[in-house]
Specification:
Transcription Regulator spoIIAA; alpha/beta; 4 helices; five-stranded mixed beta sheet
Length: about 110
């Protein structure tokens, strides 16, 4: 199933955990979850993709929109737990120029 399984605030970082295929539906869920916190002044978002192992172009384009929104608020987006194919896709698409990727959630939260 493609869904956001958890959204939590750890310190100043909004952590969004997903499961399944990162397509339009899951991308929209991520965007909506992040937007709730961004509108409340939070500007650091971590997406934990440990249980998502594939992404399509529409899902990636939604992430690009989220990066742009956060940059407008002097914020940042990061990822953790990327499957090798997603990490490669993000590099090819240039997403890694605008956000960091970490092996674990703890590492990401500490760095953000």
């Amino acid at each position: 199933m493609n869904k956001v399984t958890n959204v939590e605030l750890i310190g100043e970082v909004v952590v969004i955990t997903t499961e399944g295929y990162l397509n339009k539906d899951l991308g929209d869920e991520i965007q909506n979850s992040a937007q709730e916190h961004i509108s409340n002044g939070k500007n650091k978002v971590l997406i934990n993709l440990e249980r998502s192992n594939i992404v399509n172009s529409i899902g990636a384009s939604i992430l690009i929109e989220l990066i742009e929104q956060l940059q407008e608020k002097d914020g940042s987006l990061a990822f953790c737990g990327l499957a090798p194919i997603i990490e490669k896709t993000f590099k090819i698409m240039g997403l890694t120029k605008y956000c960091e990727s970490f092996a674990t959630q703890d590492e990401a939260v500490a760095a953000m």
